[in-house]
Amino acid sequence: MRVTPVRTGVAALALLATVACTGEPTDDDSGNAGAPATATTSPTATTTTAPSTDAAPSTTPTASPTATPAPLPTAESPVSLPALMAKEYDGRALRLRRVLARTDAYVRHAVTYRSGDLRISGILNLPRGDGPFPVAILAHGYIDPAIYTTGRGMMREQDYLAREGFAVLHVDYRNHAGSDDDPTAERDLRLGYTEDVINAVLAVRGSDDPRLDGDRVGLVGRSMGGGVVQNVLVTQPGLVDAAVVFASVSSDTVDNYERWIAADRPEVAADIVRAHGSPEENPDFWEQASPRTYVERATEPLLILHGTVDDTCPPRWARRTAAAFERAGKDVELVWYEGEGHAFGPQWPASMRRTVRFLQAQMS
Description:
This protein is α/β, with parallel strands linked by helices and 364 residues long. It has helices at residues 81-86, 155-163, 191-205, 224-235, 253-264, 266-276, 283-288, 315-327, 348-363, and strands at 2-5, 12-13, 39-40, 92-102, 106-115, 118-127, 133-139, 167-171, 212-222, 242-246, 302-307, 332-337.
């Protein structure tokens, strides 16, 4: 694993994501939904070192990433990552619907595709030109489904990546916007979101649109979406070329449950415990729902970007996730942004430049 403290001057971004009143990590850019973020100049920002809590990960590069995934574990529960590993997927029927916006660099489309029995909505930013364009599939963070509108998450990233020449597919997830409903999603720890992202990749790969390069696909996840991306990497190794996670939730699902569900949503917590048991009562279930348990299966390079003062998803979570991938001999890099919180502000443009370089290198 490589640990990189950032030392660079960057432009400040006017748009900052807000934190939901429930305390759950959010990716709600609704204050400027529907329009790209606008950059403004700011004083130079300088970073120093990673936060001092917990031991810092080694700076020694790891061995080459594993060429083949570890053996498939036995699924003790149909609601588990091993169950998602064994599942057959048929993501298909990617359809471009109405045009939502036209910019100088790309056209923004509403889209739908199939994820098992469900229809999932989203948006697709297609760069102008013939292509084929590499594809970045975006997994957004938590936004209350009651207020969510299609393509609402990761607005800055959608615009930036399309302007850098990526076709950008932003997944709404089931129960969001125009997607079909799944009444068990919350009870089953939102593992269905992972299925929706897997099927988004397959829908891109199966598309007959010549502008989409199904052989060059990367994942970008933020906050809750970072956890979704980790799930994809361990359940479907070889599906994509590389992955980037910003300010990710923990790779140990118990951390996320205790921080946001047990503490703030007692009715949902009660449903989960009735169905699956608490972490104390049924630790095996919770281990099988945690991507950290299965990092040895991942085969794709992973870039982790995290702010040193993130008080929503604590820096120790990123450190422990990176250390787990390192112990498994995976290609992982953890980059710290000194003074940045959960939303990323002044150093967000620098983080996106790094993201683009990383994806382009892995897709070449």
